[in-house]
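Structure first, sequence second, as always.
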């Protein structure tokens, strides 16, 4: 099947780019001597996870128990669920842990005791990481906080828990404005965790894994001494945000949304526009790298070959995307029924709204891969 006949809107996954992105990150992590445990939240797809983990231990990170279930059912044996665990999910996590080595995370001083009770009653052993805040201030305990020692101690003393180590995510890297700011932040993420690992070894005992990772920091960090594993996720597809940030080139972006022109408004200047059938649901309403490019809109519009048409999706409603087309020649190319590909701001959010990828090899759609969305 060709892009000209595929139903719109739909995801188009350029498999050559996926493989290239996977190989580049895999080489980089091996050179640094760390383990790769990619975050599969970006794609939620077994086939893509297999490409990412080839040549590594097969370990993955997930953001939902739905992703964990899918991975466990498809022979992924080491899975980290990287959202802090809460009692409402204990039973399901325990069930999943019967089919794989499941690691959970916490930054709460009560959870080790509660989780241990549940694990003991179910007769299972669970790995539990301490979630550390390295500056993002979303979740996690700051390394200087007393609880950063107390929580690992409680985990280590629990009969049915294993202290897995320490884990952080430098999500604030997405706010960096310059390369040097990003490099400083990447070094900070690494060094804070390596140093805190040393402190914990003295205070509590063995720290099996020091785990860090975000695509911006891992693509620019200069070494990974003191780090055992990294968990980048977005790098497998990249997106307009990452390309603007400098983590990749626009040509590295592997995921686009195929859309059809459904309406044209002839008019002068800003009033000349087309409407495409990809709106907020198909693209997501992620505002993108506004700090770096205030005109980024909700995505870049490309032609079917992936060439930039120098247009953006500037407004959206649920199923409508507005594209202002000032250039008359471009407007004449875009008839009702014409197709374009939109490179959205944030591939993780875009992918999560669809049921499957249409896998593009050369000019042909060669496969459909399921997306394990939901919770
Ligand atoms: C805990 C955790 N680890 C790793 C990642 C991967 O980060 P990125 O998508 O920037 O590669 C994320 C992303 O949100 C995350 O929340």
């Amino acid at each position: 099947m060709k892009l000209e006949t595929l139903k719109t809107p739909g995801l188009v996954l350029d498999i050559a780019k996926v493989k290239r992105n996977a190989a580049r990150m895999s080489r980089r992590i091996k050179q640094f001597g760390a383990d790769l445990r990619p975050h599969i939240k970006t794609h939620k797809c077994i086939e893509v996870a297999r490409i990412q983990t080839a040549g590594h231990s097969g370990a993955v990170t997930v953001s939902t128990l739905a992703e964990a279930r899918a991975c466990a059912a498809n022979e992924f044996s080491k899975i980290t669920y990287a959202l802090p665990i809460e009692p409402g999910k204990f039973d399901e996590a325990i069930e999943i842990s019967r089919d794989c080595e499941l690691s959970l995370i916490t930054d709460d001083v009560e959870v080790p005791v509660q989780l241990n009770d549940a694990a003991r009653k179910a007769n299972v052993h669970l790995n539990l990481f301490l979630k550390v805040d390295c500056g993002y201030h979303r979740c996690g305990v700051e390394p200087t906080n007393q609880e950063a020692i107390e929580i690992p101690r409680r985990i280590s003393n629990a009969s049915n828990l294993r202290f897995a180590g320490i884990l952080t995510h430098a999500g604030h890297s997405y706010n960096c404005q310059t390369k040097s700011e990003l490099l400083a932040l990447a070094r900070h993420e690494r060094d804070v965790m390596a140093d805190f690992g040393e402190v914990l070894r003295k205070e509590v005992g063995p720290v099996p894994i020091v785990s860090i990772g975000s695509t911006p920091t891992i693509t620019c960090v200069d070494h990974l001494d003191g780090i055992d594993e990294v968990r980048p996720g977005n790098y497998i597809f990249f997106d307009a945000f990452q390309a603007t940030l400098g983590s990749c080139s626009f040509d590295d972006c592997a995921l686009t949304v195929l859309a059809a022109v459904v309406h044209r408004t002839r008019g002068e200047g800003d009033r000349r526009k087309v409407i495409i059938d990809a709106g907020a649901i198909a693209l997501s309403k992620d505002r993108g790298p506004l700090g770096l490019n205030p005109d980024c809109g909700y995505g870049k519009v490309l032609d079917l070959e992936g060439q930039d048409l120098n247009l953006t999706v500037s407004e959206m409603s649920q199923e409508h995307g507005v594209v202002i087309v000032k250039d008359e020649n471009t407007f004449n190319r875009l008839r009702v029924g014409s197709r374009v590909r939109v490179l959205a701001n944030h591939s993780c959010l875009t992918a999560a709204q669809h049921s499957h990828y249409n896998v593009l090899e050369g000019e042909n759609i060669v496969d459909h891969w399921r997306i394990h969305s939901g919770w």
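Margin note: DSSP finds twelve helices and 17 strands in the chain.
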